[in-house]
Amino acid sequence: MSEFSINTNLGALAALQSLDATQQALNNTQNIVSTGQLVSSASDNPAIYSIAQTMNANIAGLTAVQDNISFAQSVLGVASSAASQISSQLAFLQQTVTQGQQTGISASTMNSQIQNILNNINNFANNATFNGVNLLASTGTAGVQFTSLTIQDSINAGGTLSINSMLGTGITNMVQQLNLTNLSVQSGGVQFSFNSSYAPKAGDYLQISNGTNNWVFEFQTSGATPVAAPSGYTLGSNATGGQNYLTNVMISSTSSPMAAVGALITSLQQQGFGAALDSSGNLTVLGNNLQQSGTAWEATGTAYAATNTTNEAGVTQTALSGGQAAISIVQSAISSMNNVSSIIGATQQELTGMANFSSSLSTSLTEGVGALTDANMAAESAQLTALQTKQQLAIRTLSIANAQPQVLLNLFQ
User: Fold this and answer.
1) How confident is the model at residue 380 (pLDDT cuts 50, 70, 90)?
2) What is the C-alpha separation between 174 and 33, in angstroms, rounded?
3) What's the CA gap between 200 and 327, in Å, rounded?
């Protein structure tokens, strides 16, 4: 049985509830339409929102990774360009040194040209700087703050890529790195070859002389008591009006023979000599007007003599005539520079791969976030139209329900 009451209008209450529900749904749909997202806050769907936020953070991290890779590519691009120019100069240097061996060509003119080429090599290397980073120069070079580069190439902890300096420890410029110090067309030198019996140890030494100054390079084992200078070798002024120098070449007790020779090469270069290993493992030494008769590789305990020509077991010494050593050193420098260019090129390829992968991963994550949070705008448009219609009907129904108590006035007329 229906009950008429002016205090409780059940029809109006039902219509109001329907209108409220429709209005909430309409507000939600309008928010989706305005943002384009089905899940735009944690209240929409806590789990999906949390996943999407993590993915968005990864996308932001990948953006930083891509910036890092772009920076490293720029550094390597500058280094690669300089390396290409240096290789061209080395080709010209080989031509110059070879021409300098011809009879009738002015040695002084060719040596001046060689020096210009060496200056160009250092200039190309020293100017290969991008935002303070230079892989071909030393930290003492103007404008160079870093000679190696480490970048974060992944959004994961520990995901780093290090690009090391192309100069060895203690090397001050590219000419020294390429063992071209004091190169000239008349460069004579000496070549040492090694066999399997060669076993360097503390106290072994290489002696070099130019007739006035003498140099002794003596192996020392790290952490041990230093071995004294060879018997008969007095440091300082000598009888010829020159100087006697002693350089300790530090090795470990477990250093391989070639590792010891490598340490010796660095010491030779630091004293202004050209020194390099060829592809066969032969050591060529030149520069400072080296005299072959005063050069020898002596075993521990051997007394020093200005004209020593003997060598310890496992080492064979061969004199190189003027120009022959220079050509050998330049060819070794070309090989070394090709290796540098190869390292740079391989790293560039690696960075290109990383850049492509990071871009692809960022795109995939963006698509994933969209699949989780983006709204189907066609469906939402249809939903919006339906809710707007329901809203209008709910308002009309509420209006009718609110008019019902007015009917009761007719009962009291």
Assistant:
1) confident
2) 63
3) 28
Tell me the sheet residues that pair with 161: 151
Q: Are 301 and 203 in contact (CB under 8 A)?
A: yes
Report the side by side order of strands in the sheet with 189-194: 274-277, 283-286, 189-194, 315-320
Same domain, 166 and 225: no
Distance CA 212, CA 245 (A): 11
In a domain, 225, yes or no: yes
Give the three-state DSSP class for 260: helix
Domain that includes residue 222, residue range: 189-320
Same-domain status, 276 and 219: yes
3-state helix vs strand vs coil in the chain, percent to 5:
50, 15, 35
Which residues is 317 bridged to in the sheet? 192
What value, to the nearest 5°, has the Cα angle with vertex 178 and ends 268 and 184? 75
C-alpha distances in Å from residue 290, one per residue of 23, 210, 245 = 98, 5, 14
Q: Which two tokens stand for residue 316?
A: 């064979």
Last residue in a domain, options 320, 346, 374: 320
Tell me, rounded to whole angstroms, the distance of Cα 296 from its chain centroid.
41
* Residue 19 token pair: 């209108």
- Cα-atom radius of gyration of the chain, to the nearest Å? 41
- Enumerate the β-bridge partners of residue 274: 286
Q: Which pLDDT tens digit goes with each residue over 224-234?
A: 777 888 999 99
Q: Is the pLDDT of residue 412 over 70?
A: yes
Q: Per DSSP, what are the bridge partners of residue 216?
A: 207, 246
The Cα 169–Cα 365 span in angstroms is 43
Entry pTM:
0.67
Integer CA distances (angstroms), 139 to 170, 179, 237, 346, in order = 11, 19, 34, 24
DSSP 265-316: HHHHHHTT-EEEE-TTS-EEEE-TT--GGG-EEE-TTPPP-TT---B-TTEE
Beta bridge partners of 276: 284
**52-72 burial: b if 16+ Cβ within 10 Å, else e:** beebeebbebbeebbebbebb
230 closest CA partner among 243, 211, 217, 212: 217
Same domain, 308 and 216: yes
- Mean pLDDT across the stretch 243-253? 91
